[in-house]
Specification:
Length: 276
């Protein structure tokens, strides 16, 4: 089955991918799914015990990661839960396909659809992004409260009208705030990339009501809502957005901020997952 063939139903490919994952991991049903973005790669190690790790290109519909710093595996993790409790499993998607790769929106959201087909009811989307608030130093985690999708596209095909009110679940944000009441919230603005914004575009994003700028997440969140998943979005501000500080932007800076914040955001994520 070819995901790029418009005659193919992308949900059929997702179902096939979910079967391959169930067979390869021996885990019939995953309860939650995580997408790990820039800076979040180490977070999975703290949430539980890895049961199996599969190269994502072995799973139908997945592609190789295009970016240094992104991990190309799908992991099944047995969550550390209360003693005697029914064990829960997380599916960790370490590779994300970005819209800027030009492979089409179906590829971008295939991991999310696969997670839903694998049984997940909740999805945690993480990313690295630029921050508009000068108070957010590189390494600051921010809960996504809502988004503005500036990609001019959608993962939904045909006359599929989906309500996006409370897309980033207020309930799940509440759980995150139980772990860390100081976590700020912000509106995430997705640009296509792969270039960073001009200062004028960042100023526009701010006037529109945005607080974070990035190149992922919104299309995945929309697909997640369509699939009935409850969504939590967490951004790691790895850099001040263009024009917010006098520093130029670099991918090296992004990787550095991610590495420095790693232990703190990993612990944060582990505690949130434990409460889902
Ligand atoms: I990491 O400043 C990261 N990703 N669009 N802008 C956009 N994407 C990003 C940025 C940024 N930093």
């Amino acid at each position: 089955m070819d995901l790029d063939d418009l005659a193919t139903d992308p949900f059929d490919v997702a179902a096939q991918a979910a079967r391959v994952i169930a067979d390869a991991t021996g885990v019939a049903r995953h309860d939650v799914a995580l997408v790990l973005g820039s800076g979040w790669g180490g977070a999975a190690d703290l949430i539980g015990e890895t049961v199996a790790e599969i190269p994502s290109h072995d799973v139908p519909g997945f592609t190789r990661p295009a970016v240094v710093g992104h991990v190309g595996t799908i992991r099944s993790i047995r969550l550390t839960g209360a003693p005697g409790a029914q064990p829960r499993h997380a599916l960790v998607l370490g590779s994300r396909t970005h819209l800027y790769e030009g492979l089409g929106v179906r590829r971008v959201v295939h991991g999310v659809r696969t997670a839903a087909a694998a049984g997940a009811r909740q999805l945690v989307l993480t990313n690295g992004c630029g921050g508009l608030d000068p108070a957010w130093a590189p390494g600051t985690p921010v809960l996504i409260s809502d988004h503005i999708n500036l990609t001019a596209t959608s993962p939904l095909e045909g006359a599929t009208f989906i309500d996006l009110t409370d897309l980033y679940s207020a309930r799940l944000r509440g759980l995150a705030h139980e772990v860390d009441p100081t976590l700020p919230e912000g509106v995430y603005v997705q640009f296509r990339g792969p270039h960073y914004e001009t200062p004028a575009e960042v100023a526009m994003a701010g006037r529109m009501g945005g607080h974070l700028v990035g190149m992922s997440t919104t299309l995945e969140a929309i697909a997640a809502r369509q699939a009935g998943l409850e969504v939590l979005g967490i951004s790691l501000v790895t850099n001040a957005a263009a024009g917010v500080s006098d520093q130029p932007l670099s991918h090296a800076e992004v990787l550095e901020a991610g590495a420095a914040a790693g232990p703190r955001i990993s612990a944060l994520l582990a505690q949130i997952i434990a409460r889902l």
